[in-house]
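Hi all, posting the design record for the shared folder.

TITLE: backbone redesign
STEP: 1 of 1
STRUCTURE INPUT:
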């Protein structure tokens, strides 16, 4: 069994959880249209739908909330927030936004034009949606190992430089607004990119006059995995590695709801002062004044504290170890998962777990429903439902990875909760032959459909035989 260090915190306040029966969960899932996203939170016992905004804040963060300056313009809290981003991430120009996708929207509107092309180390649904809505076509330039759940490659978030060169050669540098990178790569299972590869990718892009922007939502987790896996980095602090990841890039989009241990907020950070001025103008339209960006002053204070706490070695060690513990339990029970374990989630390979469910019947969504019914645990599909439809053909995209993602909130659940999750997933896998069919849409939104779509079994009234 992997090492499970004692949690580096103690409980000062509790939120009661409601236990439910199988009959309760069946009724709730039916009302939700076989989409766990549409469940009410009180019907979920352990909620691993996302690690975004679901963190437990520390006593220091709660104390910081009371210091919030709620002035509309020039609030003191903004400058505390700005200084924290500058100190730990190294970017000069900091534009607050209500959450990460607010920054994605602004950056896309600033730089993307119809007919352009966006290389990236695997897509993320909201990122690609912003890029496509502004007229770009996404091109995946991640290493092939990222699409292989069984590969033990330590840096499955790395860019394949040959693929990036091919995109530049085919479309021309002038048709590429920027290279869009993530650290870690969510859709690959929280897989990291190495500092060496990120630096080489930036050098290649910059040689062609192409900027590089980094999604840093989980870059602290990426930094910890670099410390464990990349030669020559073991003696570096997580804070030093975080700065090294950001250093070669031209800016970053951040959802502070992840690594920064907050419940809301984010930022767009830039090096180019002219681009920063343009982005501030759009922030005024879509987010709020450039010194609050859709956040209250108290949120900016809490984020500033969370940024500093996020790089504390005891915190990030325990956070990633909890993920690895769950992954190890599932792996030893024969549940097919994405290996190696990432920084924020464990992903079950739903295509391998349910080979008898055809890909057009959404094995990932089907498995998510089965796990909820078994254990009251909510995960999220990361496969064909999340990938959406091809805008040209209208056909469902069928990515090579068809996953059930179990994203673990920070400082929320204990080892006992992880054991409950593991027992539930293992039970579903043991009885997987009882799942006799998949799901089909009854309601399909045009964008980010996994959030609001509704489904029904493709045969009868239940997925079980």
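Okay, here is what came back for every position:
SEQUENCE:
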């Amino acid at each position: 069994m992997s090492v499970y260090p004692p949690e580096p915190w103690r409980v000062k306040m509790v939120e009661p959880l409601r236990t439910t029966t199988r009959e309760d969960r069946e009724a709730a899932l039916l009302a939700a249209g076989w989409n766990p996203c549409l469940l009410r939170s009180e019907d979920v016992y352990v909620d691993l739908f996302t690690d975004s905004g679901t963190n437990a804040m520390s006593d220091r963060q709660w104390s910081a909330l009371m210091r919030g300056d709620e002035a509309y313009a020039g609030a003191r809290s903004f400058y505390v927030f700005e200084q924290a981003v500058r100190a730990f991430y190294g970017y000069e120009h900091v534009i607050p936004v209500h959450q990460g996708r607010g920054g994605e929207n602004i950056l896309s509107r600033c730089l993307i034009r119809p007919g352009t092309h966006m290389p990236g180390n695997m897509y993320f649904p909201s990122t690609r949606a912003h890029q496509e809505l502004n007229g770009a076509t996404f091109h995946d330039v991640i290493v092939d190992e990222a699409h292989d759940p069984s590969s033990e490659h330590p840096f499955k978030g790395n860019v394949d430089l040959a693929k990036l060169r091919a995109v530049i050669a085919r479309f021309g540098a002038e048709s590429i607004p920027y290279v869009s990178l993530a650290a870690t790569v969510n859709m690959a299972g929280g897989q990291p990119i190495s500092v060496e590869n990120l630096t080489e990718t930036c050098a290649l892009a910059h040689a062609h006059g192409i900027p590089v922007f980094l999604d840093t939502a989980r870059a602290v987790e990426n930094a910890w995995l670099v410390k464990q896996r990349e030669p020559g980095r073991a003696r570096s602090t997580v804070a030093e590695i975080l700065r090294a990841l950001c250093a070669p890039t031209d800016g970053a989009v951040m959802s502070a709801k992840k690594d920064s241990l907050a419940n809301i907020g984010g930022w767009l950070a830039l090096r180019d002062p002219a681009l920063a001025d343009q982005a501030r103008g759009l922030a005024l339209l879509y987010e709020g004044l450039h010194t609050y960006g859709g956040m209250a002053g108290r949120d900016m204070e809490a984020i500033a504290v969370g940024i500093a706490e996020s790089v504390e070695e005891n915190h990030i060690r325990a956070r990633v170890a909890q993920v690895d513990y769950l992954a190890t339990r599932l792996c030893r029970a024969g549940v097919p998962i994405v290996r190696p374990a990432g920084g924020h989630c464990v992903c079950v390979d739903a295509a391998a777990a349910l080979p008898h469910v055809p890909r057009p019947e959404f094995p990932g969504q089907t498995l998510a429903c089965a796990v909820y019914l078994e254990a009251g645990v909510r995960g999220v599909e990361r496969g064909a439902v999340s990938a959406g439809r091809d805008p040209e053909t209208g056909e469902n995209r069928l990515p090579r990875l068809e996953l059930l993602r179990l994203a673990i909130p920070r400082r929320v659940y204990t080892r006992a909760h992880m054991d409950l999750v593991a027992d539930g997933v293992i039970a579903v896998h043991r009885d997987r032959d009882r799942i006799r069919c998949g799901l089909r849409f009854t309601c399909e939104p045009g964008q980010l459909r996994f959030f609001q779509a509704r489904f029904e079994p493709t045969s009868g009234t239940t997925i079980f035989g």
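COMMENT: Residues 3 and 234 are 18 Å apart (CA to CA).
Let me know if anyone wants the other runs.
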